[in-house]
Amino acid sequence: IQLATENEQYLSELPEQAGCFKEPRIAEFIFLLCEKWHLDQSARYHAVELLERFMIKQVAQISKSSRENAKSHEQGQGSSWSSLEDQIRSTFVLRLVSCVQLASKLSLHYNIVNTDTALQLLHSLKYSYTKQELLESELTVLQTLDFQVNMSTPLTYVELLLEVLGHNSCLLPAKPLHQMCVQLLDFSYLSRDPIYDTLLNVVIENSTPSRLQVAKFLAVKEDFMLLAVGIISTSVFILNPGRWTQVVKHLNSITGITSQSILEFSYALLTHILGSSS
Prior knowledge:
Blueprint: H1 2-12, H2 24-36, H3 41-73, H4 77-106, H5 115-124, H6 131-144, H7 154-167, H8 174-190, H9 192-204, H10 211-216, H11 218-221, H12 224-239, H13 244-255, H14 259-277
Helix pairs in contact: 2-3, 3-4, 4-6, 7-8, 7-12, 8-12, 9-14, 12-13, 12-14
C-alpha cells in the first residue's frame, strides 16, 4: 500500500521533463559503472533515478536563474539557453558519478564507491576534477534533492510484488524468476523508448499518436507499478507460460492494474526482446 501511494504521488506531481535523463546511453553508462565497481542490482536503478530527478530539478533551477539574468542584463533568450546547455554539459558526467556514489552508499550491501575510486575513473576519462570538487558535487546533488534520496526504484516494486505473490500461494521458482525480472528490467531501461512507443501504439490502436496522446502517456512511462507487473508477467511467460494466466490474475488483484494493461505491456516488451534477439 505504501509503495502504491508513493507511486501515485510521484505520478500526480510528474514534471513534463520526466524521462528526459533516462535515455538508454545514460542508463547503459550507469549500468557499466555499477558493474565495474561491483555494486548490487538495486544501486544501478537507484543511480539512474537519482540522476533523473536531480537533473530535472537542476535544469529548472539553472533555467530560472538564466531567465532572471537575461532580464537584468537584457540578453537574448538564445544566449541564455546556450549558457544553460553549457552548464549542464560541463558537469553532467561529474553529477552522474556522484549519483552512482550516493546509490552505492544507500545500497544494502555497503560496497561503497569512495572518492579515490570515483576520481580515478573521472581522471581516466580526461576530467581533471579534484577531491574537493567531487565532494561538493555530491553535496550539490543532495541539496538539490532536499536530501530526499532514498526513493523506491522499479526493482523495489518487483521484489515486493514477488514476495506478495509468494504469500498468495502463487508458487514459482523464486531465484530464476528474480534473475529473469532483473534481466528484463535492465532491458526495459536500455530499450525504454521503443518499448513504450510500441505500448502507446497498442493502447491507442494507432501508429501515429497525437501530441496530446504522447503527453498524456508520460504518466504511463513513469509508472513503476505498471513496469513492475509488466516485468513479472513477461518473466513468468518466458519461464513458465502455463502459470502466466494465474499470475496475471494475482497481479491484477494485488495492484488493481487490469489484466488487459498487463497483457499489453508484456506484448510490447516481448516484441522488442524477440526483435533484439533476431
